[in-house]
Amino acid sequence: MELRDAVLLGLIEGLTELLPVSSTGHLILLGSYLRHEGDAAKALDVVIQLGAVLAIALYFRRRLQTEFRGLVLRRPESIRLVSSLAAAFVPTAAVGLMVNRFVKEHLFAPIPVAFALAVGGIAMLAVERRTTAKEPREGLAHLGPREGFIIGLFQCLALWPGASRSMTTIVGARLLGLGNSTAAEFSFLLALPTLGAATAYDFVRHGRLILDMPGGPEALLVGTLVSFLVTLLVIALFLRYVSKVGLAPFAIYRLLLSAAVLWFCL
């Protein structure tokens, strides 16, 4: 793999990981264009998420420190938030282990991604229209383990590449009555265990394939670094942007991209 291609993969990963447009879907489309195929390329698409995980941890470091101290001191609000994140993570981890092979073999391709982008875009427009008339609840204090578990069930839909982990969790939170900012913040925090586990799992299973392919170690390092830097920039911008404009612009982008992919592939 050329380092130029690794930079492109890291850039796309960083730009799209936290936006409701599907980073995995974009990486699959880019990989198809660059003709990066096989288990090593599929694993690399997942493992470079490490850059995004590290960026989220750095951005929310004070919040994470506060919640860790709260757990040690047994503060109810910290226990409630961590319990919510755990309840959201469990369904995705369980379902992911069951369908991982099927997803990699049958859905890591442009056509399935295009359909997932379209379905997600339509769902976002429907949810935006339904929830704009209601007064949203802002603040993570409105989340408990029950709400977390429901959001986790929505996150399972993101196992279909192109659906978007960010989209499914934000949509789930919006349907529970939460505002865009709170939904996005919870989605970002939930990315830490979810993406961290997925990255570790794929690296343990396929890390040797990545390291053995020509240019693999360099590609992994460069892609992860670029992903880290770009994700760090995107977090702050997205949190401000989504609170003002909502999900509709991202939904329209998904529909346009889906139409373009289907036009070229069919």
Task: Give an account of the 3D structure.
The protein has 266 residues and is mainly α. The chain has one domain (3-265). It has helices at 3-16, 23-34, 39-47, 49-59, 61-72, 76-106, 110-131, 145-156, 165-175, 180-212, 216-245, 248-265. The protein is globular. The two termini are 28 Å apart. The mean pLDDT is 89.
Short description:
The chain is mainly α and about 270 residues long. It has helices at about 5-15, 25-35, 40-45, 50-60, 60-70, 75-105, 110-130, 145-155, 165-175, 180-210, 215-245, 250-265. It is built from twelve helices and no strands.
Main features:
single chain; 266 residues; mainly alpha; 12 helices
Measured distance between first and last alpha carbons: 28 Å
CA-atom Rg in angstroms: 18 Å
Considering DSSP H and I runs of 4 or more, what fraction of the residues is helical?
A: over 70%
Shape: globular
Main sheet record: none
Mean pLDDT across every amino acid position: 89
- Low-confidence segments, given as residue ranges, are none
Question: Helix segment count?
Answer: 12
Structural class per helix/strand content?
Answer: mainly alpha
Structure summary, number of beta strands = 0
Domain tally: 1
Strand content: under 5%
